[in-house]
Amino acid sequence: MKTAHPDTLLIHNAEINGIPGLQLLIESGHIRAIGGNLSPEPRPHLRIDAKGGALLPGLTDHHIHLLATAAKRASLSAEHVTSFEELATLIRNAACGLSPGEWLRVTELDTFTVGIPDKDELDRIESTQPIRIQDRTGALWILNSCGLSFIDSNRGDHLPEGVERNKAGQLTGRIWRESEWLKDCLKSPPPDLERLGAELSSLGVTSVTDASVSTTQEMAGVLGRAHKSGTLPQRLRLMSGGKLTPCEVGSFEVGETKVLLDERSLVDFDEFGLTIRRSREQGRRVAVHCVTAVELSYCLAAFETYGAYPGDRIEHGSIIPKEAIPPINKLGLAVVTQPGFLHARGERYLARVDPCEQEDLYRCASLVEQEIPVAFSSDAPYGPIDPWLAMRTATDRLTETGHPICLKERIPAARALDMYLGTPPHQAARARQVRVGTAADLCLLKLPLVEALSDLSRHHVAATFINGRIVFQSDCTPS
Fold first, then answer.
1. C-beta atoms surrounding 64 within 10 Å
2. 162: closest CA among 260, 63, 64, 288?
3. Superkingdom of this entry's organism (predicted)?
4. What CATH number corresponds to the domain at position 180?
5. Domain containing 49: what range?
6. Tell me, what's the pLDDT at 181?
7. What is the predicted pLDDT for the residue at 407?
8. Nearest by Cα to 347 from 83, 87, 113
9. What CATH number should be reported for the domain holding residue 48?
10. What is the pTM of this model?
11. How far apart are CA 66 and CA 193, in angstroms?
12. Are residues 33 and 138 in the same domain?
């Protein structure tokens, strides 16, 4: 991504920390002065008229999967497929435009509605082109026989546990929790990250935490080099299941050790404890994937047994029973959650989640009231990437069609914005402000903050700056 990086830049007529009509001077990537009538010398190389808009710290997406999100942009979506017949039509139409041997990659299949097909069923749809389908949770891939031939020829019988077999020992085509193994097996090249970087910039996002448990040193190098080159301009923190080392200075920050819990096959408790201990030895915090009450209970038991540090995180907190809130508070854990799911999947939750558990979905207000650190994120590509949509959903708790889900968990718009302004490892407990001396990672809005908070929308982002570079411009005028 090509970005402007003048030695000096002056933003004038901006609302900063609630005060209108201010100027802000950027030099060498940092905020050097804020005032009412700055007269910098030498004259700035670029002046930008904010037109009265609010100038905010750049937003942070505290939980995203960058490579998976970039790959999804080049995939066929099955998000709106509601039957196997519709899936068959979608695949057949897409397969007509493929070159011989070209993969068809499908994502976001709702297996609750459509069911879980196997290779034989996919073969009846398309048998000549290799196909792989991912479910909407990201936990499952399904391949047809043509696709499985790539695995058979390369791996033989040396397959991981997640590669499903039937009672006769034959491959079913279903592969559970083995995305990185599959990618390595198929020798898939890294996806293009430039489009994703541009999209995040247009949303005002200046930093991200990639929460992938499968991040290897090699993958971290791909992401780090994309950041250093400007292709992915957002500052990077990377989680992983194992040890990580930055590939070069400024490429990425090493984040938490990720533990992926799956209620169907929970990790051994002693192994969980060993992971926590090794993380401490590396000076890292621990982030635990918890989307069910059982997973959350297991997570809390582990932290109670092996110890929790400030900055340890519960990822998602999709279901948090009321009785789990006091132990979360006692242990000092943060919750990094995604209210955007209530908008995107709310109708499914209302139809499928037990009514007595619906008040436990993506809690917010009840956590904030107990002073539990809470931060928001997208979980893209599995959730909507738009932070402004997530903020809006946190304030109204409405599904896409306007049905409410536990309105008592609503929070004010200003507090929702703070959930994207925290600095890890403490997330929203320490919301950033625009201050002299800090890095010039900024989000300029087209209107004052009070107006923007009354209409939380991505369309109000006028410009985004990362380290003083203009990485997105919409409606701000150089002068």
1. 25
2. 260
3. Bacteria
4. 3.10.310.70
5. 8-58+438-478
6. 86
7. 97
8. 113
9. 2.30.40.10
10. 0.87
11. 8
12. no
- Decide the pairing of beta strands 104-109 and 253-260: unpaired
CA 331, 355, 80, 204 torsion-angle sign? negative
What distance in Å separates the CA atoms of residue 436 and residue 67, rounded to the nearest whole number? 34
Contacts of 151 (CB under 8 A, 6+ apart): 143, 159, 163, 171, 182, 185, 186
Domain total in the chain: 3
Question: HEC string of the chain?
Answer: CCCECCCEEEEEEEEECCEEEEEEEEECCEEEEEECCCCCCCCCCEEEECCCCEEEECEEEEEECHHHHHHHCCCEECCCCCCHHHHHHHHHHHHCCCCCCCCEEEEEECHHHHCCCCHHHHHHHCCCCCEEEEECCCCEEEECHHHHHHHHHHHCCCCCCCEEECCCCCEEEEEECCHHHHHHHHCCCCCCCHHHHHHHHHCCEEEEEECCCCCCHHHHHHHHHHHHHCCCCCEEEEEECCCCCCCCCCCCEEEEEEEECCCCCCCCHHHHHHHHHHHHHCCCCEEEEECCHHHHHHHHHHHHHHCCCCCCEEEECCECCHHHHHHHHHHCCEEEECCHHHHHHHHHHHHHCCHHHHHHECCCHHHHHCCCCEEECCCCCCCCCCHHHHHHHHHHCECCCCCECCHHHCCCHHHHHHCCCCCCCCHHHHCCCCCCCCECCEEEECCCHHHHHHCCCHHHEEEEEECCEEEEECCCEEC
Which residues make Cβ contacts (< 8 Å) with residue 3, sequence separation at least 6?
230, 233, 466, 469, 470, 471
What is the side-by-side strand order in the sheet with 140-143?
76-77, 104-109, 131-135, 140-143, 171-176, 163-165
For the record, the structure tokens of 29 come out as: 């990537």
Q: What is the pLDDT of residues 327-372, one digit of tens each?
A: 999 999 999 999 999 999 999 999 999 998 999 999 999 999 999 9
pLDDT (average), residues 250-271: 93
Q: Which tokens hold the place of 267?
A: 């990790």
Residue 276 in tokens: 């926590």
Q: How far apart are CA 109 and CA 141, in angstroms?
A: 10
The pLDDT of 34-51, averaged and rounded, is 82
* Parallel/antiparallel/unpaired status of strands 76-77 and 374-376: unpaired
Q: To the nearest 10°, report the CA torsion of 444, 450, 456, 462.
A: -20
Query: Considering the domain boundaries, does residue 411 fall inside one?
Result: yes
